[in-house]
From TrEMBL, chains A, B:
Keywords: Cobalamin biosynthesis, Glycosyltransferase, Transferase
Organism expressing this protein natively: Modestobacter marinus
Entries under SUPFAM superfamilies matching the protein: Nicotinate mononucleotide:5,6-dimethylbenzimidazole phosphoribosyltransferase (CobT)
EC identifiers of the protein: 2.4.2.21
Stated family: Belongs to the CobT family.
UniProt keyword annotation of Cell wall biogenesis/degradation present: no
Role this protein plays: Catalyzes the synthesis of alpha-ribazole-5'-phosphate from nicotinate mononucleotide (NAMN) and 5,6-dimethylbenzimidazole (DMB).
Gene3D superfamilies in alphabetical order: 1.10.1610.10, 3.40.50.10210
Pathway(s) per entry: Nucleoside biosynthesis; alpha-ribazole biosynthesis; alpha-ribazole from 5,6-dimethylbenzimidazole: step 1/2
Protein name: Nicotinate-nucleotide--dimethylbenzimidazole phosphoribosyltransferase
Pfam family, one: DBI_PRT
Name of the gene: cobT
């Protein structure tokens, strides 16, 4: 290519990874892309870890399905599709175009007092993610993780602590923007929950058990989504701390799966950086986003597509008649 | 908007700036976008500051005009146009589609031994940039800076030192990837040149004099391009260290002009970070790019467009029926 070696920085690694995932160089463009927004509710909401009412999850699922959320605006701008997957919203949302009803249970139990879900439910939610990824991979060149669930940064922090060994105070953040007393309560809740998980999960069985103990249904589905994308050899762009926590689960279930994942961004939530560090993923964007929905991952799509495009289109020194140094 | 306050991070500042530039909220989408690649040669090439032969500038201008460079691939992917402006290439490139011939002189003089150009030439090159920006602003919603010129990181480092007070060893980098002896020579060249500029330019006259003493013709044109974009109230996305150095000149000529500029990325070249810090601009991307051509700025375009799109499209809590906390 007519450029100095290494001059495209991180995008050279992205291009190489895409070629590896596809088993072809140049790799296909990651198009069309689709964001799968996995939605679920969290029993830990009862502990007062967020000022938002739980009903907002269902309302936002309707907003996402109706095209009114930020991720819909970004998707329209960037030429991507959005599908919403109800994997565990507490109240029925009702059928809507672009909404897949895959309810495993109507919200998790309160992770601060006991297991968030059963092993069977965790497994079923993982399988939902695999199924959605497999179906979408058949018609799309890139999968993007999205999430919606009031209370899900609490479950994410707990998963990050369990899978990385991080301290709850270091991994727990302000989510949508909570005050100091709420943050203190949130750290205390995470501390109590993580204490029930003995050591970092070293086997797939232990990973599934920790997921059931601490995670959300959308975390489970997202872990499956990452596995399904890898199995289909389609690149998957990870969003924020919810996806990062889910990717830790996916890596514990099948380490090789992460070879096909890219970290779209690093969010303002401290547990996200810890998760990415543990996964060895360098985020493409750092814009202090803390919205979720898949917004940060989706914004990285043009970078990934441009990296692939450069491999395909750029002239060589020979073909362009440019002198090499 | 149906999102927690502040949750779009840096993009909220971008959206507010776009609204300010347009004098309208929501602002228009920054479309269509066009990259103007200003090309020039540098007499300092004679000092051995780069391993690339000077003829590569003209060859790459032909490659850019022919659509074979990386910025062309990125532009095709991202829906932008590319125009190339010969403002000072050492050898005639010849007419080509998409190439504007605005030659002020065929390359600068060697800045290590005397002024790179006359005051009149510097002014004329600034005016080229203003003219190109004014013309392009009439049919485009976003202007993107691009540059091509073997040796131009040496002139950039000299400008950064003169306009920020930075030490030559701190501001001078490896450009396309030079070895240690070449870097030492480059620092020495920059040190000698900057010593001829007495203090940081405090007036427009002093800024033009420093530009003529140390800059390249493409730096002068890019400074004018930033001024022209501001006058036309069209946002301008700045690329790497060449644009950063030119923006320092533009800020010294007219500080208010920078209110309409966005830093697309921060490059691997150390002088770029120093320039952005002095300008108070936070870069949107940090991908360790060091290619120039406008590649880094262009990659930030989807972020800027998405920020504008969110202001336009996203539902409110009321319209979506979502409960506020």
């Amino acid at each position: 290519m007519t450029k100095p070696p290494g001059s495209l920085g991180v995008l050279e690694d992205v291009a190489a990874q895409l070629a590896g995932t596809a088993g072809a160089c140049p790799p296909p463009l990651p198009e069309p892309a689709v964001v799968a927004v996995f939605a679920g509710d969290h029993g830990v909401h009862a502990q007062g870890v967020t000022p938002w009412p739980q009903e907002v999850t269902a309302q936002m699922v309707a907003n996402l399905a109706g095209g009114g959320a930020v991720v819909n605006a970004f998707a329209a701008q960037l030429g991507a599709e959005v599908v919403v997957v109800d994997v565990g919203v507490a109240t029925p949302v009702g059928p809507a175009a672009g909404l897949l009803e895959r309810t495993v249970r109507r919200g998790t139990a309160d992770l601060s007092v006991g297991p968030a879900m059963t092993l069977a439910e965790a497994r079923q939610a993982v399988e939902v993610g695999i199924e959605v990824a497999t179906t979408l991979a058949a018609g799309h060149g890139c999968l993007v993780t999205g999430d919606m669930g009031i209370g899900n940064t609490t479950a994410s922090a707990a998963l990050v602590c369990a899978f990385t060994g991080a301290a709850p105070a270091a991994a727990t953040g302000r989510g949508t923007g909570i005050d100091d007393p709420t943050l203190a309560r949130k750290v205390e809740v995470v501390t109590r929950a993580v204490a029930r998980v003995p050591g970092r999960p070293a086997t797939p069985e232990a990973a599934l058990a920790a997921l059931a103990e601490l995670g959300g249904l959308e975390h489970a589905a997202l872990a499956g989504f990452v596995l399904g994308a890898a199995a289909a050899r389609v690149p998957v762009l990870l969003d924020g701390v919810i996806a990062g926590a889910a990717a830790l689960v996916a890596a514990a279930l099948c380490p090789a799966a992460l070879e096909h994942a890219l970290a779209g961004h690093t969010s303002a939530e401290p547990g996200h950086g810890l998760a990415l560090h543990a996964l060895g993923l360098r985020p493409l964007l750092g814009l202090d986003l803390r919205l979720g929905e898949g917004t940060g991952a989706l914004l990285s799509l043009p970078l990934v597509a441009s990296a692939a495009r450069a491999l395909r289109d750029v002239a060589t020194f020979d073909s362009a008649g440019v002198t090499e140094k």
